Amino acid sequence: MWSPLSILFAALAPLPSVLALGGPTCLSFKSTQYAITTNSQAATIWIDSSDWPGVHRAAIDLQNDLEKVTGKRPVILNVTMSATTSNSNLDAASNTIPIIIGTVGKSNLVSFASQSSTTLKNKVAAIQGKWEAGISEVVKNPMAGVTAGYVIFGSDKRGTIYGIYDFLEQAGVSPWYWWSDVPYKNHSAIYAFPNVTCSHGEPSVKYRGIFINDEQPALTDWVIEKFSNGTVANRPPFNRFMYSKVFELLLRLKANYLWPAMWNSAFGVDDPLNQFTADYYGIVMGTSHQEPMLRSSPVEWNQFGSGQWNWDANQANLAKFWTDGVKRGAPYESIYTLGMRGTGDLPVDETGNIDLLQRVVAAQRDIISNVFNKSASTVPQMWCLYKEVQGYYQRGMRVPDDVILLWTDDNWGNIRRLPAHDERNRTGGAGVYYHFDYVGSPRDNKWGSAHNLPKFHHQLGLAKKYGADKIWIVNVGDIKPHEISLDFFMTYAWNTTIWSKDDLDKYRKSWALREFGSDSLAPTIADLVKRFSHLNSRAKVELYNSTMYSLTSYREAEGVMGEWDALVSSSNQVSSQLPAVYQPAYFQLVHHPIIAGRNTQALYIDAGYNQLYASQARSQTNQKADAVEANFEYDEDIRDQYHGLLNGKWNHMMSQTHLGYFYWQQPMLNSMPSITRVQKRQTALPGPMRITVEDSKGAWPGDNSNQCSQGYNCPPPNVPALTPYSPIQNRYIEISAGGPTPYTWTASSNVGWLKLNQTSGSIPDAYAGQRVLLSVNWSAVPVGTSPTGVVTIKSNGGQSVTVSMIADYKTVPSGFSGFVESGGIVSIQTEHYSRSTAVGGVSWEVLPQYGRNLSAVSPAISVDARWAPGAGPVLEYDFYTYNSVNGNITVTVYSAPTLNTAPGYPITYAIAVDNNTPITVQPMPLETDRGDLPSIWSVVVAEEVIRTTTSHKAAPGKHTLKLFATEIGFVTEKIVIETVSGSVAYSYLGPPESVKV
Ligand SMILES: *[C@@H]1O[C@H](CO)[C@@H](O)[C@H](O)[C@H]1NC(C)=O
């Protein structure tokens, strides 16, 4: 497997400008004793003419790319030699070392070198027979008369190809040079470090692939424009020219597997050379979960099949259809999808389904064995347990042991099932079908990308540890804009051991450095990606509505907009510092998601303010309406800007509709959120001065349904009390216009301790608004008292409103350390525990950036570990309260919507306050045995959180909350304790974290 030595060297090397993500650094742009190419001397590449055509093709990429990087075209020596005799052509240039390429068993260069050099003989023996392994390093005297060579030998075709692309990545060529227009980094000379190995493999996951899916409108319209020569038959031109771009990208990402586009495409038919080309490149072809036997369904069936898609009714035709598919695929490397899905094809009675499906699989195995003329168990096959098919498995259906069981996520990134103990030694093993893109309930997810790396990392980490590592395939929609997610997915699949949960910042920085080449900007770019991804992973754009983030409580909406605004300005700064050649890549990968993300968020939040302000008789209603209209226009401008890049290279790629969902399916046209307007010449009935306050939807003076329950003759407003432990140490009053009449105002406090940040101002026009901040001078309040102060706001037109606030001078006993209640709430980020205790070597771990807030915690992944309630690893949180409801408090745990992946052992946690008996809670109900997701599922995946509440005895005072692990896989990010009933106001993210003393 992985040589620890190579990782050690990577760690010792200085921060490289030369890198392949996650790999050691073997190349250098500073002089070493081994030059591969110098300022004056081009590189030399040796390859054996008998090697795989796909290796030759990659060698030509090496030649072309190195020419772009160094300005000098490498010379390829394409030698024909016997295994034992040298070829006189093998003449290294005097001051450089050759790059020697070869595949074990296919290249006489390898055989010859193994005979001349004992070092190489041993190294070759070490990789021989392995899957996609390779030697990649400087070898001294690789053959007689050659002092040294940079050897790239693979155990098989892809083992060599990955070595070539890894070399190029280090030399300054991003895998995304074409798909995201990442510029070649220019270096006139390239050297190799002695004594460092970039040897690789076997990879952590055997088949690493993508599914191009949901490919209309963006990808399909782009393909029609770019690959059609103007004539499009009945189906879009997903031909070998288009797929060559995909195959090459996959190989550069060290991936090997593809499910092709199938909405209105038939890979094996639309271009008869598609399958050949995939194999020539080195890509293993498959078809999706619902397309058995390597044939596009239903497209091909509709074209070539006859009769019903129903095994019992139409066996002969289906068998012939599938036989043709296997014959067509047989010359090439493929994985055959078994089974059959479809609504019209299965009997209603459930037992009948399983029996039928088992007969279908048996017939498919016979077909495979007949076509290959050998046991079906030697041909790669998979059975995908997607949606209801998992139900069949749960109720006992099995396939032969050699078939890979492909478990799935819930289409929202939560894996439904992991191999149980007795399933881990199947010869076929298991895999995971995962989603970045999805069409379906509760909403499509087709436009943006969250790059939710902490979640992918955790879920896929579970998959690897539980042995689901034969296939990882991810639904990437249109490929763009999932570039970063895909890059990480493949980097992780290639080697899960070097990317821990704490390495995601390192990953992003390496990524940013590789793509943008700037040591100084890379950390900022990495941080921008992390921040926009975090904001996007709180909710898909398709699910936004105008009141999702609270407009009045916890300053939630304005906090979110503040984060987006900071991102836009920081991204503008980076963009202004990047050379022109980097602009297209930067726009696609970083700037577009930021400006488009900010804009869609602003669109909805402003629409929310628009409605709220109208109800409050504020003239700023119209300003917000204008803003919504402008943002709606700007959304189109941003799309057009993307489409206009590089003379339209990516035209159509952002044409996915995303605004104005009415149900789960994409709208056929974007529509703007509803807005309203107020009359411009009319003044609000009570006069032009409008007063609104923090944490209330009401407005004063005059009547408003949100002022008090009866909605008229309500008392003047108050703002929530401040205590020394309030997370935000001030409250606000907003003064705004209720009509076109300008006015001036004054504000005064009736007590010395209540401070105002401004005491007068003017509202010169209808769009003006000002905030007065109220804070407390605690030294002027006696400890333990809770006086009320009153602020009076007067307009020069004679209007007057009073706002009251309590200063609640609470204290905690000296020596107390922990979270302190304020406003009836204790809110805790789970990573801020007081104590953590391991059990049997397993403890809770912090998952940085996981979830909607700061981070999350989860029991370290320890396969099959589970504990009785109260016996497992425990996190303790000390907290202090002043209230209770009849001696009780409620505790709401915000956890990730992870599914119950272990049959018979649902994911739970156990929770206790002080030394009371722990209560066990199961956040996610079980799936039905028919494979239906639990009914809460569509709500909790949409919000990316499950909130579960327990009640505990806790009189006011000091307490300890204990969170016990019971099952691996539980993830929680926030705990909210309510000590006064109803004190937690609506918000999307929950109350801000309490003060910890
Ligand atoms: C080397 O020669 C073989 C046989 O003539 C040819 O098929 C192959 O494309 C050549 N390779 C390169 C890299 O030029």
Automatic annotation (TrEMBL):
Keyword Protein biosynthesis in record: no
GO molecular function, one term: hydrolase activity
Gylcosyl hydrolase 115 C-terminal domain ranges (all copies): 818-993
Keywords for this protein: Hydrolase, Signal
Signal peptide positions on this chain: 1-20
Coiled-coil positions: none
Protein name per the record: Gylcosyl hydrolase 115 C-terminal domain-containing protein
Lineage: Eukaryota, Fungi, Dikarya, Basidiomycota, Agaricomycotina
